[in-house]
Amino acid sequence: MDITPTPNEADEALRQIRHQQAESVRNAYKPGPWWAHLVLTAFFVSYGLGKDLDSVWGTVFQVLCWLILAAVAVVQWRRRQVKRSVATSMRMNDPLTWVLIIGFTAATLAVLFGGPRLLASFGVPFPHAVSGLATGLMLILAIPLGRWEVRRSIARIESGER
Amino acid sequence: MTAQLDAVIHPPTRLSIMALLATADEADFAFVRDSVGVSDSVLSKHGSALEAAGYVEIRKGHVGKRPRTWFRLTPAGRRAFAGHVKALQEIVGQANLPGLRGG
User: Fold this and answer.
1) With contacts defined as CB-CB under 8 Å, which chain B residues touch A8?
2) Which whole-number Å values give the CA distances from A18 to A14, A21, A38, B15, in the listed order?
3) What pTM value is reported for the model?
4) For residue A39, which of A1, A80, B56, B90 sits 20 to 30 Å off, Cα-Cα?
């Protein structure tokens, strides 16, 4: 049986494919609860305070934050209707998105690990805690980056760019 | 050219299911059903056909106490889907329709 579609049928099939893929990407984006970002910030601040005060309580609080964040991540992942991993996103093959993600990650790590030395040289008190707070705030600023990446993926799919 | 068209995924419902799964790791039965716009039985039938062809894996599990069914494309399914899409694009391209350019 010949299943070769006419050009118009093939064009309609491609449109349908793009529509479904955009729908799938749209549904896969489910940001976590807003308070999870506060917990993440608390994690970095407690890391810094633990170092500044040389206190074991910093580590205890970090572990607590880490457990809360892990529980949130597991619940979010289980509830998702469409699951997308980094590997799936890599297949989307968008160099600009990856440049931004890698650049932002590098900047965040630079603030977390390089910030304390810089702040200490200026005599700022609690340099590790201040750097941890800055790192947490940077990650909160990254929330719109996630939304932008999803919108860009959908636009690229709908335009047939990928 | 048309050798890459795949008879198993050619029907519109199956093509839609494959398209949904191609951009995801896994998708929930209810999401696929609602997105494709078919009934539970129709989705089960097409899902089983795709599974029999080795293009889709069907996993059953629970979220809390609720049973859930998940669909996932296999590597063979991804290859077949990519080949099918390429063949469709070539058909559109030869006729110089906007599809190849994404319009």
Assistant:
1) 95, 97
2) 6, 5, 37, 11
3) 0.78
4) A80
